[in-house]
Fold this protein.
Amino acid sequence: MRVAIVTESFLPQVNGVANSVRHVTEQLVRLGHHLLIIAPGPGPSHYHGVPVTRVRSVGLPGYRAFPLGLPDAALERALSDFGPDVVHLASPIVVGAAGLRAARRLGVPTVAVYQTDIAGFSRQYGVRAEVLLDRWVGRLHRKADRTLVPSRYSHRQLADLGVTDLHLWRRGVSLDLFDPTRRDPERHARLSHEGREVLVGYVGRLAPEKQVRRLAEISDIPGSRLVVVGEGPERSWLGRHLPGAHFAGQLGGTHLATAFASLDVFVHPGTSETFCQTVQEAQASGVPVVAAAAGGPLDLVEHGRTGLLFDPEDQFSLWRTVTALVRDPELRSRLASQAREQVQGRTWPIVVEDLVERHYRAVIEQRRLAIA
């Protein structure tokens, strides 16, 4: 099968969209499919043996390091020359919209993967355009042949925008990388002052849409120390307001897996997550999770069994919930064990094989029948 992936973000960017595209690419190549990636640049021209066509981009206002793709004539030329059987639209907004138009003109079926709550994203940056952005997102997904959503929350979001052909397709997790055996006792001892403190950590982009400033609410819990892994525009604010925290910077690969597994508690304060991959990675790493009772984490965390959920509308709920875990090692152990068991069937090979067999083949067959 020939698959063109048109994505709003790709390497060298590190985020949920780019990481998902990377994993999907690796698994599709493993399965013997032929791929083309189209992404905003600059960046590498190949990944895992797959050519990457780069289109024009500008820095996102307020986050200049994040390239926002622009419609580009090179995109349709690349699709036409490649001759795909299906076009995979990864979190379509701008580049994805151009990819959708090109695919429709070329008569190629499309599968759109919803990953970013763009209205919620813009709100965190002070841009009040939720209604317009929601209309745009709804319009794009209504024109795609099929839309895949990562959670029940996302399903409701798009259904409310009039999108009908919706299918649940969750992300995979790399169980060979994120594993409790990655825990580094020396790292833990060094950061926790020889085990005298419980390490409470956040891993992800340090950006407004992640609501990372709420980490200040849990920075002074007795018997704990905050660990922050990641980079982004909120780094300087956090540095000023979390003087006792350890900032590890942006990590990847085994370094990231070790940082995850060496935590005692993982916290994600954001409320606009369509899925929240870092919750899954913490669970796979054997670390108990605290997440907002909103958005994608509602599908990943069963309160009291595979983690704890806090009420984002209650200004003291986050502090109370994290404090409960800091004070109760038995609860931490039980939640971590049950969460780890829950993610065992969510590997990337499993979810990508499902993507091909249940979704790619369905839209290809629908297009064949329509032509017939």
In short: Residues 348-371 form the longest helix (24 residues). DSSP finds 14 helices and 16 strands in the chain. The mean pLDDT is 94. Residues 290 and 322 are 7 Å apart (CA to CA).
